[in-house]
Amino acid sequence: MMGSNPLDGIPPNSEMSDSSDVYTDVNVVPEHENVELKKKKNKLLEEKRREALNNSTNLKGSIRVFCRVRPILQANKMKVRDLVEIELGKMVIRLSGGPKEFGFDKVFPQDQEAAQGDVLTEVEPILRYAVDGHNVCVLAYGQTGTGKTFTMDGINYQPGIVLRALEKLFYFASIDKTSTLTISISMLEVYMGNLRDLLATKPVREMHETAIRCGNLNNKTDQKGFIEIEGLLEVQILESHCLTRISTVRQCDHDGEVEVSKLWMVDLGGSERLLKNGATGQTLDEGRAITLSVSTLGDVIGALRRKKCRNSKLTQILKDSLGHDSEGLDARSC
Ligand SMILES: Nc1ncnc2c1ncn2[C@@H]1O[C@H](COP(=O)(O)OP(=O)(O)OP(=O)(O)O)[C@@H](O)[C@H]1O
Fold first, then answer.
1. Relative to the CA of 144, which ligand 1 atom is closest?
2. 7-11, 210-214, 243-247, 317-321 — which one is most confidently predicted on average?
3. How much distance in Å is there from the Cα of 144 to the middle of ligand 1?
4. Which atom of ligand 1 lies closest to the CA of 73?
5. Residue 147 in contact with ligand 1 by CB distance below 6 A
6. Has this prediction a pTM greater than 0.95?
7. This protein's superkingdom (predicted)?
8. What is the CATH number of domain 115-217+239-333?
9. How many angstroms is it from 70 CA to the middle of ligand 1?
10. What is the pLDDT of residues 65-121, one digit of tens each?
11. Which of 116, 175, 228, 269 could be stapled to 290 by a disulfide with Cβ–Cβ 3.0 to 4.6 Å?
């Protein structure tokens, strides 16, 4: 399908113009008809592209599970032996009781060579699928400290999937010849079963921006020489699930038809650090809430297939992006 000439099946020029006109050279086609012809060709190309993508999605299945193995951090280098062996879609862990083998759609190796860009290459078809009007979800989960945030958000000079996906979507918008793509973003946090809109601080933000413009934020030095900026907004970072939603609206220039879709990028919180060492009080509650919502999410992916859905804030939010008309990519890190 992908290898065939995308213009196969497009009628010759003469069939697209008035039956009385026969054109042999495209340069002599009147301008308005030339434009119409180009539009028609673009539309057919677009239909062929969609068909090829749908076929490949059907072949690969709607859920894909990738594994990214975090490099051994400098601090652990002395303590950890090389316990993992990686092949393209397989990971073998050598344990004292014998090796254990796990299969994935793809395993990203441990070394630095497996760059953030390699992960995006696997995500790219899913972005295309989202732009075509399907709801899509990319989830990163794994133990605490295994690289979920690194994969989703990245660090300076190594941006993660969220930023790269946005860049790619803007690229798609810039080359789209058949429609107009509008992209919006939302961010929210699920903490202890409650939702918090991470971008909804508008009145406070406006107040701060005005203060900065007017030079009203003052520097203060405390007794230890610490510089503090008076009134600067500080938001506590909690161990929680962080969800980024990219919404796309694509309007076809030809017939005005609109396709709307949601692309969720989820950095699931890890609870192991919170639950170890006899956690109590709020820490214990946070750990329990994270564990509950992640295990419920696992159940829900299965339950959605059986058309039964259990209740958890996380799964309620993702419900329409994990079901039938959606594409799930599961970026597991270890
Ligand atoms: N592929 C990688 N290459 C280089 N450094 C990495 C990679 N993955 C993770 N790290 C580093 O490992 C540390 C832990 O990663 P990260 O914070 O992303 O883990 P996490 O799974 O999100 O943890 P938590 O569940 O506690 O939020 C960070 O210092 C991060 O920069």
1. 25
2. 243-247
3. 8
4. 12
5. yes
6. no
7. Eukaryota
8. 3.40.850.10
9. 7
10. 888 888 877 665 555 556 677 777 888 887 778 888 888 888 887 766 558 898 999
11. 269
| Spatial distance between the Cα atoms of 135 and 321, rounded to a whole number of angstroms | 5
Domain ranges of the chain: 29-57, 115-217+239-333
- What spacing in Å lies between the alpha carbon of 150 and ligand 1's midpoint? 5
Cβ–ligand 1 distance for 148 under 6 Å, the answer yes
Cα 267 to chain centroid, rounded: 10
* Rounded distance from Cα 165 to ligand 1 centre (Å): 19
110 lines ligand 1 (CB under 6 A): no
Does ligand 1 have an atom closer than 6 angstroms to the CB of 155?
A: yes
Quote ipTM for the complex: 0.97
Tokens of 214: 């007017």
Question: In terms of pLDDT, which residue wins out, 37 or 11?
Answer: 37
Q: How far is the CA of 158 from the centre of ligand 1 (A)?
A: 12
